[in-house]
Design goal:
By secondary structure, the chain is α+β, with helices and mostly antiparallel strands. The chain contains eleven helices and 21 strands. 36% of the residues lie in helices and 20% in strands.
């Protein structure tokens, strides 16, 4: 090779070395982290000392167990920590992974009282608060394979259905089969040449129900945005799921090819050295070109996925019939509109039956044009109000879709919060926060209760209603006219603060609309 060629090869090697030093320029690799943004410990404090001791103790524990928790210190200086390795990882790999995670958590979240770091095959969490046995579904990190399963929408929908069915089966196995250690894997044939490999795992401190809730939430989140990706994973504090078209959980090492001993002192040494230089240079140049091409591909794919995801979440499509017994997907549909479970949380029918004691008459709060309203208590103790659409109410069916699509996007202290919805065959239900003082009409038209509305409370209620309407008309991202505002649609919380409810008749204005035809008479008595 000429001196000029060697010089160019060296320049290419230098550029490759620079690029390899910036992994974020290619596609993001672990570690992934979530750091507390509100609590910070002092340098050289007792909490820092306890944290250092705790992190130093975890790798040795990881060599004998894939999950452990420990605490060091007392009072405000107490540090609680835990780690989890994926079950398919060998003990020595678990120890090495936890050692790496302990190093990264100190570097990525310095001086934080709470942090979590995920490596490729393990995670570490520490906090000044007690978290053992507590379910957490916040701060989840979804990740995807950058390749699409297909460019055909029909194939993407079929893939999503297969993934969902596979994960649902694994969730039942991991959460409710005591012999699985809250871990399950399964290969599923997708096409003649493609086999889908899936894995789910919960931290063993969770109850079976909480493990199921965590994995159901993870499934909903991952399929909401990555339904078209060939593979994806979701990192959570309490659970983990992943699926790919290769057996990522079947760890195997390939035997190394034997190396022939070299005979020093021969006249072929010079040729061998020259040949090695040529090979190394060629390989380095190839690696550089491949790295540059992969970087460009990642940028293009990422932009394309964002565009696809935005188009998907903002369009109307006709998707599989929800009444089809074979459909168990994380989406619910009505009138061709997508009700995405991540943006519009879905609550299953069994949970609502349990919360309302099977719609017991003793839990019935009232009857409206939409249908009956029941009080319920969810498993976490939260009180809710469940509006159940009457089966013979055609008007209520339209109101249902309008209310879910509309009120979930609104956030104001004087608007009632919609916590979730349920669609199961003929059943349609809306789940709201519970208002213990019922509605304003109960006080206005009851002589005994009316005496509780002194002028101070009346002014507070009037002001709250005005603030809610002002928000709808001027300050929300959508300009909304309620069109059915009345005393029975103003609910009162425990402090008699008003909250506007029932947006089934609401009308959305376009951003540039100053007026619209509202001559049509709507509303209920």
């Amino acid at each position: 090779m000429s001196s000029q060629g060697v010089s160019k090869a060296i320049q290419l090697l230098s550029i490759f070395s620079v690029l390899s030093g910036f992994p974020d320029l290619v596609c993001a690799d672990p570690p992934y982290n979530v750091c507390s943004t509100t609590t910070i410990y002092g340098l050289n404090s007792l909490f820092q000392s306890n944290l250092e001791n705790l992190l130093d103790s975890l790798p040795s524990k990881a060599f004998v167990s894939h999950f452990d928790n420990t605490s060091i210190g007392n009072g405000l200086d107490r540090v609680n920590g835990a780690f989890l390795c994926l079950n398919y990882v060998a003990n020595d790999q678990c120890r090495d992974c936890i050692s790496t995670a302990a190093y990264h958590v100190k570097k990525l979240c310095p001086n934080m009282n709470e942090a979590i770091v995920w490596e490729e095959e393990c995670q570490i969490l520490y906090s000044n608060e007690t978290f053992l046995g507590h379910l957490s579904t916040t701060g989840n990190i979804p990740l995807d394979n950058k390749k699409n399963v297909s460019d055909l929408e029909s194939e993407q929908l079929r893939f999503r259905s297969v993934v969902n069915d596979t994960l649902q089966n694994l969730i039942k196995q991991a959460a409710f089969n005591s012999s699985t250690d809250m871990y399950a894997t399964k290969p599923v044939v997708f096409t003649d040449i493609d086999i889908l490999y899936a894995l789910v795992q919960c931290t063993p401190d969770l109850s079976p129900d909480n493990c199921s809730i965590c994995l159901q939430t993870a499934t909903t989140e991952i399929l909401a945005v990555y339904y078209f990706s060939r593979g994806a994973r979701l990192l959570s504090r309490s659970c983990y799921l992943r699926y790919e078209f290769y057996p990522f959980y079947e760890v195997a090492t390939e035997p190394q090819a034997p190396v022939s001993p070299q005979n020093p002192g021969t006249r072929k040494d010079g040729r061998r050295k020259t040949g090695m230089i040529l090979i190394i240079t060629s390989v380095s140049v190839s690696l550089f070109v491949a790295t540059l091409a992969f970087y460009i591909y990642c940028l293009a794919t990422r932009n394309g996925k964002k565009k696809e995801r935005k188009q998907y979440l903002n369009r109307e499509v006709q998707l599989p019939d929800i009444h089809d017994p074979s459909y168990t997907g994380p989406y619910q549909f009505h009138g061709g509109k997508i009700l995405n479970s991540q943006e519009f949380p879905f609550i299953d029918l069994a949970t609502i039956h349990e919360a309302t004691d099977n719609f017991s008459e003793s839990n019935k709060l009232g009857q409206g044009g939409f249908g009956p309203v029941y009080k319920g208590v969810l498993r976490d103790g939260k009180e809710v109000a469940v509006k159940r659409l009457s089966s013979d109410s055609e008007q209520g069916s339209e109101e249902f879709t309008n209310e879910v699509l509309l009120i979930m996007k609104l956030q104001h202290k004087n608007l009632v919060r919609l916590l979730g919805f349920c669609v199961d065959r003929e059943e349609r239900m809306l789940v709201y926060e519970y208002m213990p003082n019922s509605s304003l009409d109960v006080f206005l038209f009851d002589p005994r209760r009316r005496s509780q509305l002194d002028w101070s409370r009346r002014l507070n209620i009037i002001g709250g209603i005005a603030r809610g309407i002002l928000y709808l008309h001027e300050d929300s991202r959508l300009r909304i006219i309620h069109r059915d505002l009345k005393a029975s649609n103003v609910l009162l919380d425990c402090d008699m603060n008003p909250k506007i409810s029932d947006f089934g008749m609401a009308r959305i204005f376009g951003g540039s609309e100053g007026e619209a035809n509202t001559a049509t008479i709507v509303g209920t008595q």
